Amino acid sequence: MTDPVTTEESHVTPQKPAGGVKATSERPKAKPAFDFEPKIRIENLSLYYGQTRALFDVDMSMPAGEITALIGPSGCGKSTLLRTLNRMNDIIPAVRVTGTVAIDDVDIYSKAVHVDLLRKRVGMVFQKPNPFPKSIFENVAFGLRIHGESNRNSIEETVEKSLQRAALWDEVKDRLRENAMSLSGGQQQRLCIARALAVGPEILLMDEPTSALDPRSTARIEDLLDELRSDYTIVIVTHNMQQASRVSDWTGFMYEGYLVEFGQTEKIFIAPEKKQTEDYITGRFG
Amino acid sequence: MASIIDPKFKRGFWQDGEPFVWGTAAALSAILISITILIAVIMVNGLGVMWPSDVALLSLQDGAQVFGLPLREDPILGSDAINLQIKTGNRDLYGADFRWVEKGTVRAIEYPSDVYTLERMEYGNFYGRFKRLGDGAAPASSEDLEKAWQAGQEEKERIAAAAEEVNALSRRIDGISGRVLKLKHSGTPENDATLQGLLGEQETAKQELQGRMAEQSALTQALLAHTATFVDAGGREMTIPLMNIVRLYQPSQMGIGAKSRFYLSKIGELLFDEPRESNTEGGLFPAIFGTVMLTFLMSLLSFPLGLLAGIYLREYAREGIFIRIVRIAVNNLAGIPSIVYGIFGLGFFVYGIGGTIDAWFFPERLPTPTFGTGGILWASLTLGILTVPVVIVSTEEALGAIPRGIREGAYALGSTKFQTLVRVLLPMASPGIMTGFILAMARAAGEVAPLMITGVVKLAPTLPLDAEYPFLHLDRKFMHLGFHIFDIGFQSPNVEAAKPMVFVTTLLLVLIVLLMSSTAIYMRGRMRERYSVRSL
Q: Is 50 exceeded by the pLDDT of residue A18?
């Protein structure tokens, strides 16, 4: 993928310096140094639902081409954090965000950013499979159509490619005109992944994508994540700690709106630095 | 595990919920029974009317004889005697169509086969025997009578064609008069060439009209001279012009097949012909047409408006105290009596907007109103605002019932709010919106009160849609089945004769509403199949 802003030059934050991790934020901050170029960089992020504060000064970075897992007990803010990455919280009135979320060093909360283009580049898969009540084909083609693609051949090609990528093609290639609601839960979720892939994102956000699925479907989705990992930057929120340890390269543990600890998955699960993290992953609370 | 096996254990009568189940079943049964009774009464009374019943000859104790159809029996209050109602017809002879006789005084009832039933243009039915044709110089049989009547019918069609030409001519004259008025109003001098030309044209047309009218009346007079004479059971003669006889038949000589064919032709008349005899006989076509067109126009105005308003309320308006008040107000609008809407329609649409249109565009015709009087446009607008709350509420509910995940799924792909609405939400909400449309349509089709002051009439000379330019005449008054029921049932000079028509009209109105609703329900079913979010 090329630089995200090359096609939309006007969306670049004007004072963008030439590269560098600390480019968009003037405030120097103490934070753990990682030896990767971050795809997503979150600095000092806080979020308020009206008077209620849901995120407290979160600082973290997500590397390109790897899977980052967010774990933590219910209500800890991990889904909220995930939804700041494609500005899904914009839909909810009275939400206020402070701090910086930068993708490829572009602050996505800057005024110049067009949220529809942002979401085209940052795909999202939800906890409950949510295909549209249209045909399987139209579900995948939807994103292409709303972004102005009208060439039938090109749409068909992309739909097939996306369904193959989501490991669903063989199961549905003979019934593309059937209603997506006739698929099983696991198939519906893979259809949602295909739908997200069709518009050509670089980042995939997954909000507990397997929590509504049976173990077999879960395994298939996890295999799929493994296949997608090299081409996409994936952020996954999960309740299931085994899943986090199985699929992710990096893990962040969140608790009551704070990012308690962030690091390589192995390290978090084998030798966490914080006691809270240890308590959570060993099942002492949560 | 002994605790779950206890032979003595029993839940209390009320905790068990059994009486509640009976209650629910009883409520549903009560509703079904009352609806069934209503429909049955309408069907029994409405469907039987057009069947050609055999004419009875009743011999009374005092020696009198009378032809007629025995209709119903009523006990006389305070005695054991029973009154029998007979439809005797022959209003021009007896002064009334119906007669009550005490059942005990009827000595015999026979069904002679030579009795004719005549349906006439005026004075209702005639029951009697055929006596002679014309002045009776030549002896005539029943066949001769029927042949002569057939010939008269053909002649009548020619007269009708001539009358149509007269009508076209007089409409042309009206058109010219309108242009003349307009020219005069705009201050054109008397000697203006165009004006003089028009006046000349008008004069020639008027002369032609007079000629045609004289021709038509001569034809009619000639036809009226062809008469047939019939006698009633008492031997009194009645001479009737053949052209005034709509149908003549001998029901006792008709088999089931012939009677069924007759029945079907009566239904055809009902559906496709004009009414006669101050609406108590003949067809209902103008009223059917008016009802359907009114409902259609109403839908055209109310549905898009309600849909858009509902979308704004649910999708775009910022939730707050104002929107909450608006929502409550919209919900309450549905509870305002319809006559209030009628009065509003009269004041706002007819006098307000219609009067303004007249003042701006048709000043030359004043004080004769064009749009400033009741008409189908104003009536449908009035029904439109009456039904729009239902559409708004159903649109809002249908959009609100869509799971949040669907919206988020669309937004997450970079879909704009508008794209999400048009491509995902509205198709999904369409079955629910259709439910609102169906309710609104059914309500509008059955509404009478607001129409009575915004443009419905007892008898409309023309339809609001015809072959004459500009084809759609929104300023015209119209007829309506609901008003028809009220009019012939309660405003008719001959209520007893109109009673069968009340049932027939009601049946027809119910059928039309049923037809329109089932079409909409069928469409809703198709949409539901396509856009349901339920897993199959």
A: no
Omega into B461 within 30° of 0, i.e. cis? no
Tell me if ipTM is over 0.95.
no
What are the CA-CA distances from residue B445 to residues B57, B174, B380, B483, B509 (Å)? 44, 33, 10, 11, 8
Angstrom distances, CA of residue B137 to CA of A51, B116, B134:
108, 22, 8
Q: What is the mean pLDDT of residues B131-140?
A: 78
Query: So what's the pLDDT on residue A23?
Result: 41
Q: Do B319 and A93 touch (CB under 8 A)?
A: yes
**What mean pLDDT is predicted for residues A131-137?**
92
pLDDT at residue B63 is higher than 60: yes
Residues of A in contact with B424 (CB under 8 A): 132, 142
pLDDT in the model for residue B471: 80
Inter-helix orientation angle B495-531/B285-311, to 10°: 40
CA distance B417 to chain A (A): 10
B466-480 pLDDT tens trace: 777 778 888 888 999
Instruction: Return d(Cα A160, Cα A262) in angstroms, integer.
Output: 37
Between positions 411 and 440 of B, the ones with CB within 8 A of A are 411-416, 419, 423-424, 427-428
Q: How far is A197 from chain B (nearest CA, A)?
A: 9
- Among B233, B122, B126, B242, CA closest to B494: B122
Comparison of pLDDT for B32 and B367, the residue scoring more: B32
Range in A42-51, A246-255, B133-142 the model is least confident about: B133-142
The verdict on B2 touching A (C-beta cutoff 8 Å) is no
d(CA B396, CA B313): 7
Task: Compute chain A's Rg from CA coordinates.
Answer: 19
- Across the interface, whether the CB atoms of B413 and A195 are under 8 A apart is answered yes
Q: Which residues pair with A258 in a beta bridge?
A: A255
Query: CB of A94 within 8 Å of any CB in chain B?
Result: no
Q: Are B350 and B383 in contact (CB under 8 A)?
A: no
Can you name the residues that pair with A204 across neighbouring β-strands? A123, A234
**What pLDDT score does B91 carry?**
87
Closest partner residue to B413 (CB to CB) among A128, A182, A199 is A199
A130, B416: Cβ pair inside 8 Å?
Answer: no
CB contact under 8 A, A130 and B409: yes
Q: How sure is the predictor about B281, in pLDDT bands with cuts at 50, 70 and 90? A: confident
Find chain B residues with C-beta within 8 A of A181's C-beta.
532-536
**A166 neighbors A201 (Cβ within 8 angstroms):** no
pTM confidence score: 0.80
Closest chain B CA to residue A185? B535
Cβ–Cβ pairs < 8 A, chains A and B: 81
H or E element, residue B144: helix B142-185
Residue with tokens 């069947």: B51
Render B73-140 in DSSP notation, one character per residue: EEEPTTSS-EEEEEE---HHHHS-SEEEEEGGGEEEEE--TT-EEEEESSS--EEEEEEEETTSSS--
Across the interface, of A91, A181, A182, the residue whose CB is closest to B533 is A181
Among chain B residues, the shortest Cα distance to A191 is held by B409
| Chain A contact present for B351, CB below 8 A | no
- Mean pLDDT throughout B418-436? 92
Q: What is the pLDDT of residue A9?
A: 40
Contact B407 A91 (CB under 8 A): yes
Pair A261, A277: CB distance under 8 Å: yes
Q: Give dist(CA A80, CA A52) in Å, integer.
A: 13
Closest residue of chain A to B318, computed from CA coordinates: A93
**Chain B residues closer than 8 Å to A93 by CB:** 318-319
Cα(first)–Cα(last) distance of chain B, in Å? 40
For the segment B273-301, the average pLDDT, to the nearest whole number, is 87
Please check whether residue B530 touches A, CB under 8 A.
Answer: yes
